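dumping the sequnces here before i forget
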Amino acid sequence: MKKPFPETLLNQIRIVMVRTSHSGNIGAAARAMRVMGLYNLVLVEPKQFPSQEAISLASGAVDVLENAIVVPTLEEALKDCHVAYATTARPRYISSKLHTVEEAAVEALQGIKNEGQQIAFVFGTERTGLTNEEIDLCQRMMTIPSENSYNSLNIGAAIQVVSYELHKAHKKTLDLPLIQANEATDELATSEMREGFYKHFQDILFQTEFLDPTEPKNIMKKIRHLFQKRDLTASEIHLLRGVLTSINRKISHD
Amino acid sequence: MKKPFPETLLNQIRIVMVRTSHSGNIGAAARAMRVMGLYNLVLVEPKQFPSQEAISLASGAVDVLENAIVVPTLEEALKDCHVAYATTARPRYISSKLHTVEEAAVEALQGIKNEGQQIAFVFGTERTGLTNEEIDLCQRMMTIPSENSYNSLNIGAAIQVVSYELHKAHKKTLDLPLIQANEATDELATSEMREGFYKHFQDILFQTEFLDPTEPKNIMKKIRHLFQKRDLTASEIHLLRGVLTSINRKISHD
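..and the predicted 3d for all of it:
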């Protein structure tokens, strides 16, 4: 396979679509894969490929279509593969363990990282799925948990969910944190700043007669609690103090 | 909302699509939702609805389309909602925490189970996503981790991934005992209550001349953000409204 794409563990995964009837689904699959960092698409006996419809539904993922390989049999598609997961709506062999897509994704990434495996996720034709003979060529069976039968899950949507779980498992494998929220840029307020704010707030409440100066405790406790549920930043305290001062001014000068 | 569907915790979740341009995407969303047991679709100003294209792409999920509600504004869509998640490609406020879809789904199901919350997941228009004003109406921001920018993720595929994570979280939630929140007696404020509070707060700031009525936006955004970091409860909103009213009275009568 040519590899014009970033070098990651995900390059050792191929998505195999068997006898796909609708070209649009091949395009949707390419898009679903690419957004999650998967680039290897193998098409077994597609009804039509390449096609304008696939290109149009691939959106920005035309390069995945260009990289796609067409083969005559599933056997050929899996030739150099260590582990293949057959996607199914329900277990057909009672004795076979049915992995969820999440379990399968985690296991696949471990196999790639620890043993350099080549992995395939195999999707059957739209209406009838994989034949028993095709399932026999795979080492594992996998399903996407859902409310109804898998048959209602569009094949593009199924490949989106599988690609998403593989992307998550990849990130976990690399032990990288997911997108870090940049909460650090704004410094937290100091205790002194917070206390100054509560004092100022309380003074306003006395002036507006919202609080009885002889018994402020309970209400002020609630106010504190409300603001302390999360950490106020210095600039937020500054803003709140500005608001209070404007109220002060209005009350005294009017 | 009429509910011809199974009674589950997922019924307290609505998927909100804002100004969707392509009717086909509405159909794909309905299908993606239904297969994962989600039935409540709210459409804010769709370009066209109902439509033949939506029905054709909905496949077996025409009942979700029939159950869909069309409203003129996002505010209306979120009126009785306790927590709304804005879906975004990347954080727009530097200081805002960005939840992954998995975290958001788990949190949402806990909120429903423990506190009976109504939850919304909000998706913007295809090309440009949600406006900053629309994001401001939501309490949380959520993203689907992916290789490229979220923009490449088709909206139907995005709703499939979100629905899939909600379905997983639902299954997990059913397996867990009910967690008693310490503050369980105090309900979270609804979107309507919060918006009423911000409006009132802004009026006060105009009266105290803290805000220039011609350019209130930036400051009000900071105020919103400050309060939205915290989950305000109904009784807290009540308390804050009381404070504002006392200031009103003082300013007008002094």
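Residues 155-175 of chain B form the longest helix (21 residues).
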